[in-house]
Design brief:
InterPro entries: HMA_dom, HMA_dom_sf. The chain is an alpha+beta fold. 38% of the residues lie in helices and 14% in strands. It has a domain of 100 residues: Alpha-Beta Plaits, CATH 3.30.70. A 3-stranded antiparallel sheet has the order 1-3-2, sandwiched between helices. Bound molecules: copper (II) ion. Copper (II) ion (CU) binds next to helix 3.
């Protein structure tokens, strides 16, 4: 009986130490995806854009890549979360597809031709900051981790 209580409290402790739960969540999601016997990889990277129409265009471009299972562009953070089957495509193919639709990504500059054909409201500022997640920067919560 003591042993059971001991191991239970250990499990509880392991659970509580996960304060940095963002990363943990992602690995949990990946584990769920993997159980479908697909090699699904989750990535996110910066993509410039303005509005809901941009969101449609960007996500459509990403989804047009064979092997992409989901794409979600965040207009506030200027970044996209993409899940894709690693056996079917790769990260650069997704960058290239989005760039071809006229949008700058972190790695590939958007097609100028496609950009010219975007609606006026979508002609985003090329100096716009991308990927404003604060994930890899100290985001002024200096001193405490959460
Ligand atoms: Cu737009």
């Amino acid at each position: 009986m003591k042993k059971v209580i001991l191991s239970l409290s250990m499990i509880a402790m392991i659970g509580l130490t996960g304060c940095n739960n963002q990363e943990k969540k992602q690995t949990e999601n990946a584990a769920i995806e993997n159980s479908k016997e697909l090699v699904i990889k989750d990535v996110s990277f910066g993509v410039r854009g303005n509005c809901g129409m941009c969101k449609n265009t960007i996500e459509k471009a990403a989804n047009s890549v064979d092997g992409v299972t989901s794409a979600n562009w965040d207009g506030n953070k200027k970044k996209i979360d993409v899940s894709f089957d690693e056996s079917k495509t790769n990260l650069m193919a997704i960058h290239n597809a989005i760039a071809a639709s006229g949008y700058d990504t972190e790695k590939v500059a958007g097609s100028k031709e496609a950009y010219k054909n975007l609606p006026g409201c979508c002609q985003y500022d090329h100096s716009m900051k991308m990927n404003q997640s604060g994930e890899n920067k100290s985001d002024n919560h200096s001193g405490h981790n959460h």
